[in-house]
Amino acid sequence: MQTTLRLPRKLYEQVKVFVEQQETGSVNDFIVNALSAYMRAMERKAIDDAFIQMGQDEQYRREALQIAEEFAASDAEALELTERDLAGS
């Protein structure tokens, strides 16, 4: 895909100098990598924000605690079996 961007001259010059000094490909590669990193950061932030909201939701917290209690016995059994396997290795 091809598009046109308008960048402040100073920013473009900084990127161009950086790319030339570091020999890291082209200005286009730099912009693609920067945008990709920014998108990953925004996606992580959205996930983190969702977890924060979940932690503040009393109904969710009650349900999570109930599920944890229901699985406590099987979790303990799995831990015991794993520890036994590791000790026997």
Measured distance between first and last alpha carbons: 53 Å
Tally the helices: what do you get?
A: 3
SSE string, helices as H and strands as E: HHH
Q: What would the principal axes of the Cα set say about the shape?
A: elongated
Radius of gyration (Å): 25 Å
Based on DSSP secondary structure assignment, what is the total number of beta strands? 0
Mean pLDDT: 92
Which runs of at least 5 residues are low in confidence (pLDDT < 50)?
none
Helix content: over 70%
Main pleated-sheet profile:
none
Q: Give the domain tally.
A: 2
- Which structural class best describes the helix and strand composition? mainly alpha
Beta-strand portion reads: under 5%
Looking at this protein, list some descriptive labels.
single chain, elongated, 2 domains
Précis, in short:
The protein is mainly α.
Describe the protein.
The chain has 89 residues and is mainly alpha-helical. The protein has 2 domains: 1-56; 58-89. It contains 3 helices and no strands. It has helices at residues 9-22, 27-56, 58-88. The N and C termini lie far apart (53 Å).
SSE order and pairing:
Blueprint: H1 9-22, H2 27-56, H3 58-88
